[in-house]
Structure formats: structure tokens, C-alpha cells
Automatic annotation (TrEMBL):
Pus10-like C-terminal domain sequence ranges: 243-475
Keywords: Isomerase, tRNA processing
Organism (species): Brassicogethes aeneus (Rape pollen beetle)
Gene3D superfamilies, per database record: 3.30.70.2510, 3.30.70.3190
Coiled coil: none
GO molecular function: RNA binding; tRNA pseudouridine(55) synthase activity
Any one Gene Ontology BP term: tRNA pseudouridine synthesis
Keyword Phosphoprotein attributed: no
Membrane-spanning residues: none
Lineage: superkingdom: Eukaryota
Protein name: tRNA pseudouridine(55) synthase
Keyword tRNA processing: yes
Family classification: Belongs to the pseudouridine synthase Pus10 family.
Organism ancestry: Eukaryota, Metazoa, Ecdysozoa, Arthropoda, Hexapoda
Domain Pus10 N-terminal eukaryotes, chain residue ranges per copy: 65-237
């Protein structure tokens, strides 16, 4: 077997194949061999009696490798790494990387041709395994190693940072045009379109199906020495998106959620999205890379108060994935400077968790506070009717105000609770607090929408009613947004005192609940209790993150803004 291997080495050397291609075809697939192939051949020469023959065969390579188009030579690999270094890779703050490579299509054809040639010439050596099956792995290993050494980054299959390398070959189309004749049924396109439609998978599929004789008719013998070597066409760096979540509070009745544009003209000057994007852009990335999503939306003239509305921002191709607690707090303070918007609990969230924001949009309960007026003269009687009424099931036709963008339909919605109280100093004004099913048109419930909503507040109290202002006080349960970041984020742990972002989501209640659980556990089975855990939890309770806001806390500022 050793003699056969030496014969193949000598033969491939005469064909002017590069060192790494030779190693593939003699089935020495250990990674250390590909790291320094010259070292292996030097070691081999010292073990052979006929050193001159082997040395001569290694010296005669003057042309481009007919198998890999010189992609696996050290000089080409170094050139590739230089091209990567000159790209925009340095603007990304990342410790690891993953390489994705597009090879010239000719490489697969050349690889198949030499595989058939060696298999026929040395059948005993290749009887258990075919030659040249790992070209892609060899190239990736070789270039990954050089990138790691040059840029001080580690390669990882799970990296969120991808280096896309497109390698081209000047005569690639010429080889592919010949390849088309192997199976014309796979290529029903015109000559000009065929090349771009032929993918790596199609080439491999045809090569696996075609017989040796068919292949030899189109590609007789071994591949010819190429006139030009493969070169990099494009290097493109791309980072996987990150997701930033939180809750926003809106204090203005002239602020829409997302830009409202008609005919390229903004109907409303500012939006929730605009204000948040402006603040985030200073710390994370450009606005054109951001996408805003939320759990439902409120009308322009409706304030969003209480615990806020859950939202997230998708940021494509971010330059960094490390956003500190302090940076998020600065973003929140920046947003608060607008005086019309605030954001709480802003932090990184997992892609798999953002579905929690959208989950149950129609099943959540929402609490509203409306300022209403009525034509009735006995306000106390009207308030008594409302407070004594109990739950209401509504049949709501699509409101007139949204018919231009929603299908005509009748939807069943529920008012779970209603409480009313008079406004001091006004004979016909009252505050109405409601707990409703998500998706209920509250304004239409109050004024009836020309009896398109039945029953409505007017039919309940016996007098026409209308709505003056509306606020959202609460959306669902706080636990729905807690789940987005609780425990699962690598920087978030209930037992990490330095992580204050998590406290904003969970508050201190979960910690207190944990302490109560530990107390019961200690009473029942004291030997199973980690005595340090209660101490850690008590420390967390004593160091709430609210104390860390500079000067006036965000919560104090919000209280002042919402007192009106």
C-alpha cells in the first residue's frame, strides 16, 4: 500500500498538482497534514530510499494546479485572507466567524474527472474509498486556520458572523457549457441563461447519475492545465440579526406608532418608531437596518400608559452584539428626552422569544380609561347603570373609520368589566374604566358607530354617549413580557447580581417567591438547601436597579409625565 501511495504522489506531482490536492488523493486526511503539507512530504522523503525521484517530482510544479485551480496553495490562501482583511470585517466587533464559500463550478467537474482517472489507474488503492471527496472541507480548514492566525478570531459553526467568499475562474463558463451536454434535460434554458441557472447541487446530481463512458465522451482523460488560477470575486461580511425588546409608553395624543405617510407626505410629524430608532441608532446600527414590531397598536390620539406596550426591533447586520446594561439605560434616557415617549426594560432578546410578543394578541385582556360625555341629565343614575351592568358581549361590524383598510365583517368581542365615576365640576362628564378582550373597538362601543356596535354604551344607559379621550392602562399580564428575557439570555440570570436589566422585567416578586420556596424547602429537607442561595437573593433584594439611575429616576420622570 505504501508503494502504491508513493506512486500516486509521484504521478500527481508529474501532473503538477498542489500539495494539498495530493494529500487528498492519497487519503491522508488528518488535519495536521493539511496545516503544513510540505512538512509531511519532507518527512516522507527522509523515509524513502529513492529521495531524488520524489524530490524531483515536487520541484517540477510550475503551472497552476489542474484540480483546485491553485485555491489550495499557500500563496492563494494568503491572497484570500488579505482580501478578507481589506474588506469591512474590522467594523464588526466579533470574536468568532464562519466561512461560507462559493467555488467555481469547474472545480466539481475537474474533481470528478481526476476521481475517475485515479480509480481506474489505481483500483487496489481506492477499492474501499473513492479519491477526492473532501475538497470543500480541506479548503475550509486551510483558510479558517489562516484567518484565525491573521485576524485573531476563532472559527465556529455556530458563529453569528459570516464571511461569504465568492471565488471565480475566468474559464468557468467554458467548462460548464461542455458539461451541459451530459444531461440537457436538466438545462432547459437558453445559452445565455444556462450558466447562471446551473447550481452546485445540479452539477453534483448530474455527476452522480452519469456513467463513466458518458462523462469520458465529453471530458476525455485528465483535466487540462488551466490558463488562469481561481481568484476572489467578492468578500462580503454579514452578521446575523439581533433583537432588542422592551415596552413603550406614549404620552402624546399626536403620535402614531409607525410613520404615517400618504403620497410621500408625513401626515403626523413624529412616530413611536422614529423616536426609538433615532436613539438606538447612536449606539447600535443604522435605521435602514431596523424593523419595528409590537404587540398590537393604539390610535394616534390614544395614550399608552401603565406597564407599556411590548415591542421589539430587529436590527439586521449589526456591527456589534455586545450592548451593555448602561447603553440600554442611555437609550431609554435619550427617548425620555422627547417628553412624549418612554421605553422600559430595553434589552437583547432571542429570536425564538419574540413570538411571545405576538402570541395571544386576540386573547389578551386590555384595560382602558376613557373620558366620556353623555346627553343624559342624571349622571349618577347613568354611572350606577354602568357599575351594575357586568360583562357585555358585543357584535361589532367593521368600524366606518377603518373600512378603507379592513374587510367588512362582524366580530364578537367582550367587555369583561366596567366601572364609571363622575368628573368633579362637570354635569355630563364621567371616567369609564374597562377591561376588554384584545381587538375590541372601544371608541365604537362608547358611541355606537351608528348602531354598528351592539349593544353599546348608549343602549346600556339609555342615553347617547361619546368619547373625548382614551388611554390604554394595561396590556395583558406582565408575565408575558417577562418570558422574553427571563433566564434564557446568556447575560441574564436571576442569580447574577450584576444583571439589572432582568430586574426591570421580573421585578422583585420572583426573588421573593424564590425565598419563600427556599424557606419551605429548608423546613422540609434542610440537607438539600444551598445555604448561599438565600444570601444571594437577599443581596439582590437590597440592591434594586432603580437606585442606579442618575439624579432623578426614570420612574419618577414617568410619574410626573403621567400625572396629567
Amino acid at each position: 500500500m505504501d508503494n502504491l501511495r508513493n506512486n500516486i504522489i509521484e504521478h500527481l506531482g508529474e501532473l503538477e498538482c498542489c500539495d494539498r490536492c495530493i494529500l487528498q488523493h492519497i487519503l491522508l486526511l488528518e488535519s495536521e497534514n493539511f496545516a503544513n503539507p510540505q512538512k509531511y512530504f519532507e518527512k516522507l522523503q527522509t523515509q524513502e530510499d529513492n529521495k531524488e525521484t520524489n524530490e524531483e517530482s515536487k520541484k517540477i510544479k510550475k503551472n497552476i494546479c489542474r484540480l483546485c485551480l491553485d485555491m489550495l496553495t499557500d500563496s492563494s490562501l494568503d491572497t484570500f485572507v488579505e482580501a478578507i482583511e481589506k474588506s469591512n470585517i474590522n467594523v464588526y466587533k466579533t470574536d468568532d466567524f464562519y466561512v461560507n464559500i462559493t467555488y467555481p463550478k469547474s472545480v466539481y467537474i475537474r474533481k470528478h474527472a481526476i476521481t475517475l482517472y485515479l480509480d481506474e489507474k489505481y483500483p487496489e488503492f481506492y477499492k474501499d474509498s473513492a479519491p477526492c471527496e473532501i475538497f470543500s472541507k480541506v479548503f475550509k480548514y486551510s483558510i479558517n486556520r489562516k484567518i484565525s492566525e491573521k485576524l485573531n478570531k476563532k472559527q465556529s459553526q455556530r458563529s453569528n458572523f459570516e464571511i461569504n467568499i465568492d471565488v471565480g475562474y475566468s474559464d468557468d463558463e467554458q467548462d460548464v457549457q461542455k458539461f451541459i451536454n451530459l444531461d440537457k434535460s436538466k438545462f432547459p434554458y437558453s445559452n445565455k441563461q444556462q450558466y447562471k441557472h446551473i447550481s452546485r447541487n445540479i452539477i453534483i446530481e448530474v455527476l452522480n447519475k452519469v456513467s463513466k463512458d458518458q462523462f469520458r465522451k465529453i471530458f476525455p482523460g485528465i483535466p487540462a492545465i488551466p490558463n488562469n488560477k481561481a481568484e476572489i470575486n467578492v468578500v462580503k461580511c454579514l452578521a446575523a440579526p439581533i433583537f432588542v425588546g422592551g415596552r413603550y409608553l406614549k404620552f402624546s395624543r399626536k403620535l402614531c406608532q409607525t410613520p404615517w405617510i400618504i403620497g410621500k407626505v408625513k401626515v403626523v410629524e413624529l412616530s413611536v418608531q422614529d423616536i426609538i430608532f433615532d436613539a438606538v441608532e447612536k449606539y447600535i446600527g443604522k435605521q435602514e437596518k431596523m424593523t419595528f414590531s409590537s404587540s398590537g397598536r393604539e390610535d394616534v390620539d390614544v395614550r399608552m400608559l401603565g406597564n407599556g406596550r411590548p415591542f421589539y426591533i430587529q436590527i439586521d447586520n449589526p456591527k456589534t452584539r455586545q450592548i451593555s446594561f448602561e447603553q440600554f439605560r442611555k437609550i431609554e434616557q435619550e427617548i425620555l428626552q422627547s417628553k412624549v415617549l418612554a421605553v422600559l426594560h430595553m434589552q437583547l432578546v432571542y429570536k425564538s422569544d419574540i413570538n411571545l410578543i405576538k402570541t395571544g394578541e386576540e386573547s389578551k385582556k386590555k384595560t382602558y380609561l376613557a373620558l366620556c360625555n353623555t346627553k343624559g341629565t342624571n349622571l349618577n343614575e347613568i354611572i350606577e347603570k354602568i357599575n351594575n351592568h357586568g360583562p357585555v358581549e358585543l357584535a361589532q361590524k367593521t368600524p366606518i373609520r377603518v373600512l378603507h383598510r379592513r374587510n367588512m365583517d362582524t366580530r364578537t368581542k367582550n367587555i369583561y368589566e366596567m366601572t364609571a365615576k363622575p368628573v368633579q365640576g362637570h354635569e355630563n362628564l364621567f371616567e369609564l374604566e374597562m377591561v376588554t378582550q384584545a381587538g375590541t373597538y372601544v371608541k365604537e362601543f362608547v358611541h355606537g358607530d351608528f348602531e354598528r356596535t351592539t349593544p353599546n354604551l348608549g343602549t346600556i344607559v339609555g342615553h347617547a354617549c361619546d368619547i373625548i379621550t382614551l388611554d390604554v392602562k394595561k396590556i395583558g399580564e406582565r408575565t408575558s413580557i417577562r418570558k422574553i428575557t427571563k433566564i434564557r439570555h446568556p447575560q441574564n440570570s436571576l442569580f447574577n447580581p450584576s444583571n439589572e436589566a432582568l430586574y426591570h422585567i421580573t421585578g422583585i416578586q420572583p426573588i421573593q417567591e424564590r425565598l419563600e420556596y427556599l424557606a419551605k424547602k429548608f423546613a422540609n429537607k434542610p440537607e438539600n438547601l444551598n445555604v448561599m442561595e438565600p444570601l444571594i437573593l437577599k443581596t439582590q433584594l437590597e440592591t434594586t436597579p432603580r437606585r442606579k439611575y442618575p439624579e432623578k429616576s426614570l420612574y419618577d420622570s414617568l410619574r410626573e409625565l403621567t400625572e396629567d
